[in-house]
């Protein structure tokens, strides 16, 4: 059976490449790689050639997300599974795979219309040590847990859940959040490895494809340093420091140069074998800057 093993990479469309270059390096600590192409920059978080591509084409939204399968056998089996389920996809040409620095590539869309790629064989530059964009105490937590997690726009949560189940993820509703208007928000979280969730949706209508990307540091002091830098630069913080009930990570959410959120985190627990749900977070995550689609009360 073919299942995805991690959220491996992201492509982001941005309008201000210079602002992103500074933010990724000086705020987050990522390594910026410029291959001289002019229309893109690569962000490294580990030994992979990149984990994020910044495309200077101006839409300030998610361009694509890449889900990894183990190897060519799983890649072929995934194509059979998608075909049997009637899900359209195209097989990336050699040039397209080369552009992504992978050995094999499928292109499709999830039920929310989010460009989705399935790949195997990323280019890993073991000869090139990770060099953070600013001093760091530790590293980014990637490895078998992938890049982090994304919250996506989905008009049909059930259809999205079935799609990601087909890819091999598992999960369910993990919160019942009581809103001031009497409604109950029920966000849906899904995992495919030890990371407690790699994708989530069900936050209601969203202007952009993506609400936030969460990534994680191995060292608490890097989260603290990032927080100091964000506060020093007076970057909008949408959710203050707090601890989620589901992944139990200590995180805060701040604006990136494209006007959506990056969630900086540390200390998440692993995905559990059995599903649970929660009615609030453990502490913190108070709302601060409004307008980023995270105005739902977590406490
Ligand atoms: Fe998150």
TrEMBL record:
InterPro entries for the chain: DiOHbiphenyl_dOase (IPR017626), Glyas_Bleomycin-R_OHBP_Dase (IPR029068), Glyas_Fos-R_dOase_dom (IPR004360), VOC_core (IPR037523), Xdiol_ring_cleave_dOase_1/2 (IPR000486)
GO molecular function: biphenyl-2,3-diol 1,2-dioxygenase activity; ferrous iron binding
Listed EC numbers: 1.13.11.39
Keywords: Aromatic hydrocarbons catabolism, Dioxygenase, Iron, Metal-binding, Oxidoreductase, Repeat
Domain VOC: 6-121, 146-267
Zinc-finger found in the keyword field: no
Entry keyword annotation includes Metal-binding: yes
GO BP term, example: naphthalene catabolic process
Gene3D superfamilies: 2,3-Dihydroxybiphenyl 1,2-Dioxygenase, domain 1 (3.10.180.10)
Cofactor(s) named in the record: Fe(2+)
Enzyme class: oxidoreductase
Stated family: Belongs to the extradiol ring-cleavage dioxygenase family.
Assembly description: Homooctamer.
Protein's name in the database: Biphenyl-2,3-diol 1,2-dioxygenase
């Amino acid at each position: 059976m073919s299942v995805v093993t991690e959220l491996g990479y992201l492509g982001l469309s941005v309008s201000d490449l210079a602002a992103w270059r500074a933010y990724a390096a000086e705020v987050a600590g990522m390594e910026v790689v410029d291959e001289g192409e002019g229309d893109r920059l690569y962000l490294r978080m580990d030994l992979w050639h990149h984990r994020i591509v910044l495309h200077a084409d101006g839409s300030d939204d998610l361009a694509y997300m890449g889900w990894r399968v183990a190897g060519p056998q799983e890649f072929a089996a995934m194509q059979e599974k998608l075909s049997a389920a009637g899900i359209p996809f195209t097989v990336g040409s050699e040039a397209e795979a080369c552009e992504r620095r992978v050995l094999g590539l499928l292109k499709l869309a999830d039920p929310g219309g989010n460009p989705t790629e399935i790949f195997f064989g990323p280019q890993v530059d073991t000869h090139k040590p990770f060099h953070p964009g600013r001093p760091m105490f530790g590293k980014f937590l990637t490895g078998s847990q992938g890049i982090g997690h994304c919250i996506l726009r989905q008009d049909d949560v059930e259809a999205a859940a079935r799609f990601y189940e087909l890819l091999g993820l598992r999960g369910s509703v993990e919160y019942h959040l009581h809103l001031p208007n009497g409604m109950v928000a029920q966000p849906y979280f899904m995992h495919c490895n030890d990371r407690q969730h790699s994708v989530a949706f069900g936050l209601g209508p969203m202007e952009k494809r993506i609400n936030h990307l969460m990534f994680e540091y191995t060292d608490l002091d890097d989260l603290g340093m990032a927080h100091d830098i964000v506060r020093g630069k007076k970057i909008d913080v949408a959710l203050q420091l707090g601890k989620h009930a589901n992944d139990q990570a200590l995180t805060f959410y701040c604006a990136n140069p494209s006007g959506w959120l990056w969630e900086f985190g540390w200390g998440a627990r692993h995905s559990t074998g059995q599903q649970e749900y929660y009615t609030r977070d453990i502490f913190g995550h108070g709302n601060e800057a409004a307008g980023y689609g995270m105005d739902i009360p977590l406490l």
